[in-house]
Amino acid sequence: MEWYGMSQYVNDGMPEIDQEDRRQFLKVVGLTGAVAAGSEFTLSDLRGEVEGEAAGELAAMGEAIREDLAGELSAGLLGNELAALEGQIERLPELRAMGVPAEDSTEYQQLAEPGLAIHEHLIEVGFFESAEEHLPEFTPEHIGATAREFINTGVLAGALSELGYSEAELTSTVVNVVNNKERLAMWVPTTEIPAGVEGFDPGNIAPLQQRAAAGVLLWTDYLDTYLWQNEVLLTETILDNNYGDLKQMYAGLHLLASAAEDLAGAQELSDAQLTAALSAGAAMMIVGQEDLTNDVMRITDEMRAPSALR
């Protein structure tokens, strides 16, 4: 199978970072030399080594989104559903250990439920429209700026670490996203979609960040049925990759939900950090669900489990 800027997945379903992946990533975030040559390579190792964007364009974007949504978001709803989402994310290792769901399973549907509630609330208050209006396309420059701010914002990675994400998993996820800038560039704001493309009216297409979140939730909701129906095709590698891709997708969804909760009242994130959470969250959700389609949904003859009839 061909990968876009990353190596094959390893045992835990997360992409393995090789020297070329490292080189590409460090170039995007503006680091070379001693850091690139070091034996260790984690986000914590890089924190403080990259220049942040606190006084730059990211801060202006975050400030504009705050102004749009002031007083619109429900802190109570988002706090409750974010806590429920965190509980579901902590169950991801259990879902991997379960393997193929039973015929009547709703385990993956339960994983998606808190995210669906958050998604619906964000639609109601115009959250996604504001994000799309003020955030730029996924240009290499914006991806690099977002990555630098994410690396320097310990609270964003720290929240995911508390949910069971290892340092290696977080590093792998961020490198995978940054090195997939070509795929991210294909996800454009609604206003940039030409009229009539693939038969769709752009007026009926959701904002970019909404498409990213909805895709994660729809794929997840389908997994109970899909995995059960395709059990004969599945290998342990495919199930590992399903787990790894879900961890990428839900890292992104958690970042998005955390940013929304911050907007609702906590305001612990700076404006630049808010922008980084929204942009990085959408990028993780996009790359994760595209990986899921290649790793789990499009099973080739080379990937599938051997047939008993052969």
What's a quick, concise take on this entry?
Helix content is about 65%, strand content about 0%. It is mainly alpha-helical and about 300 residues long.
Q: What portion of the residues fall into strands of 2 or more residues? A: under 5%
Structural class: mainly alpha
Task: Give the ordered list of helices and strands.
Answer: HHHHHHHHHHHHHHH
The number of helical segments is: 15
Question: Top keywords for this entry?
Answer:
disordered N terminus; globular; mainly alpha; 310 residues
Describe this structure in words.
The chain contains 15 helices and no strands. With 310 residues, it is an all-alpha fold. The chain has a domain of 213 residues. Helix 4 runs antiparallel to helix 8, helix 5 runs antiparallel to helix 14 and helix 7 packs antiparallel against helix 13. The radius of gyration is 19 Å and the shape is globular. The N terminus is likely disordered.
What order do the helices and strands come in, and which of them pair?
Elements: H1 19-29, H2 34-37, H3 43-46, H4 57-69, H5 75-89, H6 92-98, H7 107-124, H8 127-134, H9 140-152, H10 154-162, H11 167-178, H12 181-185, H13 208-229, H14 236-266, H15 271-297
Helix pairs in contact: 4-8, 4-15, 5-7, 5-14, 6-14, 7-13, 9-15, 11-15, 13-15, 14-15
